[in-house]
Amino acid sequence: MAKRIEIFDSTLRDGAQARGINYSLSDKIYMLGLLDSLGIDYIEAGNPASNPKERLFFEQAVRVSLKNAKLVAFGSTRRKNTDVKVDAGVKSLMDAGTDVVAVFGKAWDLHATDVIGTTLEENLCMIYDTVRYLKESGREVIFDAEHYFDGFKANSGYALDVVRTACRAGAGTIALCDTNGGTMPRELEEAIKAAMEAADVKWGIHVHNDSELAVANTILAVQLGTVHVQGTLLGYGERCGNARLSSIIPGLQLKLGYDCIGDHIKDLYHVAREAAEITNLPFDETLPYVGRNAFAHKGGMHIDGLCKAEGSFEHIEPSLVGNSREYLLSEVAGKSAMATKLEDEFPEVAKDKKKVGALMERLKDLENEGYSFEGAESSFRIFVMKELGLHKSKFSLVHFKVSDEPTHENTFGAYAVVKVNVNGENRMAAAEGNGPVNALDKALREALGQFFPELKSVTLTDYKVRVLDTNAATGAKVRVVIESSDGENYWHNMGVSTDVIEASLFALIDSIDHLLLCKKD
Amino acid sequence: MAKRIEIFDSTLRDGAQARGINYSLSDKIYMLGLLDSLGIDYIEAGNPASNPKERLFFEQAVRVSLKNAKLVAFGSTRRKNTDVKVDAGVKSLMDAGTDVVAVFGKAWDLHATDVIGTTLEENLCMIYDTVRYLKESGREVIFDAEHYFDGFKANSGYALDVVRTACRAGAGTIALCDTNGGTMPRELEEAIKAAMEAADVKWGIHVHNDSELAVANTILAVQLGTVHVQGTLLGYGERCGNARLSSIIPGLQLKLGYDCIGDHIKDLYHVAREAAEITNLPFDETLPYVGRNAFAHKGGMHIDGLCKAEGSFEHIEPSLVGNSREYLLSEVAGKSAMATKLEDEFPEVAKDKKKVGALMERLKDLENEGYSFEGAESSFRIFVMKELGLHKSKFSLVHFKVSDEPTHENTFGAYAVVKVNVNGENRMAAAEGNGPVNALDKALREALGQFFPELKSVTLTDYKVRVLDTNAATGAKVRVVIESSDGENYWHNMGVSTDVIEASLFALIDSIDHLLLCKKD
Questions:
Q1: Which domains does chain A have, with CATH numbers?
Q2: Which 128-147 residues of chain A touch chain B by CB within 8 A?
Q3: ipTM metric
Q4: Of A49, A188, A468, B252, whose CA is between 20 and 30 Å from B320?
């Protein structure tokens, strides 16, 4: 049977220390349920001593019934020269009411003397007293040996004393921390082995990604016998972030035969996206396993290879983590890419080599003109339908005009007028915007929204401009790619022109076309 | 003396296989010079067999004089059952005219039989013939043993035969490739040791990041004796990307005592940013070493610790890579960076701490509004002059109006009218363009050209649009960066607005300002 590794997620605590992340109370409650649904063992959700919002959160969180996870409150050891029973921080930790607490103490002599400003002996007492007190109060105690690896390098005897002290005081788990994220794998190995010889306890690992080694160091620690892995699902955390669990869990479970979250691993792709959504950060699509690019192939030889031998250009089967394979169409891709791409939506066409060849030729012409369908799936679909004579738009644009000049108030200088035709009926609309494209988008929705109310629920969620052949500078062609959403689905469209407004207009029209044609299905 | 490790960058070849990356010819030439300035040893810049654009690029690139780097053309071994002397791909590789070529061949039996569809023997012949022929033609040959690690797992004997064959044929360097990026460090170690026993050659490593282990695996390979490191500066590449040199170089050079790029390491931060700018991708600020967040501290305890003991919460001194420390709460950051920036052009100001501080505050405000002077040196200069009261523009823009609508002929829909004032005299001009920005640019030159004939020799050589805060889609701010040239010098300017036309206008005005102010000098 596979060896079980405990997963400890700190997205809501260490993750919240990342630049640009601020969770509301309801965000935190939502994230708690989400992480629980993934089969995470421990969810470290905050430091109740840090502010009143955190205390309020724990009041609510302890009442949430979790299926898989244990809720963890995080805090520091008692202050120097203070009775642990009256220490305010320790009291907050107790008051949080969780069954499990994570307590951090200094394992680097420099920190004890220069940052806390106490003696090495008192630092050990602070650790002993706090762990012992929490343990005797019935808590499961995870001790985070902060800066253990830097401490080991500076004064290995003292770092090991810290570990022994926490163990003797009753810590159930000791997590060795690379708080500054600078430890190289071979140093890490030596320091872990020394700790394992010094004390007998359940070992954990907690590393930061400042050297881009957090995943490797965590996996190495597990291979050395560590059974408790700390990190954050998407790697969020102070500076360069914490060890990314979305990369570690599949590595351990799919490659090395450990068991982390069992069958929940199939939900990894979707849970990762939802976590980013709650956090309100753009998703990094190049992320291993969970990024949209992780199994997206652009090179023609790679695509050809995959069609001939599955697994020839992929390290795992994408569906194991809930992801899927994608072939990007580009000037470096070939006919087999086109055929594969057509199979889902136009299976009869995919079988017709002549038609595939003709589409490929037409696509190459368009690419020479600057089109690139690789990030605009929906425009690709419309392109194929048009080429096959299957496309019937439900509206046409009769005229448009966009104007931009400073006004008296020097604001809202851009406005647009559009005239559309739907079933023989003309309709005009006008709108201002904080730029010409924004104005055009609004006017178009205004005019068409009278015929197609479903357009009102659609929002533009992304807008990208790429200048082609930059040598021609402002006379060059631009490619505009927009992302639209009705709240549930996302689709991508593209337009190309020397005129950024016209290119945007083409993409907007394709996007509306997409919605109206999908609705019909 | 530190052991020297060769750095081989493939941003322009493997990097171009990443989703969303499309380099123009001038982008590639610019990137070539940029990477050379960082002290990179080899720059793999494309596959001349893939398309005519690539051939054209090599025609120009071989004429660029490089200070540190060797230009490398990339290609495949000859086709099966073909004489190497008439093979089209090998001929393209020769025609590229570079002193160094990188050739890849299959080291995984499955690929030889199922993807190429040949025998294991013929695959070895393809490798031998190609390496030998290129070597005898006077080229330095780097052999990429594609899929070496997967091949070693499947059929170690054959993978080692591939390596021996390339060595016997005269390859100067053999790079062992983890093409699918799925290899775990311990498997990597075993396979590298076996290769090193099988052949005596200069060893290289080439890994992808699909398991988030590319940096760790590369460092491990070097520790095992590999002296040639392949990757891409910012990790761009197919799927999850290639090994990120911006993380590997400091790891090797600052942590482990190897020498990669010598003193150029101080330029890492700025070169990384400029490379992202050329690529027109947003910079990931959480990147180790080169991200703005890498030494940005948010946690109160961390900031407090750093103030008490330097290095207590940092794994390296940020200035070693040209980065700087930032405290997100107290905002005392960046002064030294600003002073460094001023030293070249405004040495007296650089010495005045108060002025530097005031400029820093103003710069922070602008950065919060979306300005970024990385990549727009000329606008930075104008910004400083304006803040110091040294800037006196030779013209002002009184009014402008841009209009865009289809015409009867359905072409040239965009036109612009501008009114400028020079020394109290107003002058109007109008122009059509193939887009609104092009029209505005022409009208502006027309109006001002009557006063300043030198404007007529200026052309816009690059135009880039970056959407900031993509969540707001078409209502979001954009940053426009333009490159101008008078045939001899190039300069870069920037504008920010929610309105792409207005942002372009700001950049155009700055660009003209730059020319007229420089002329005075």
A1: 6-279 (3.20.20.70), 297-360 (no CATH), 396-520 (3.30.160.270)
A2: none
A3: 0.78
A4: A188
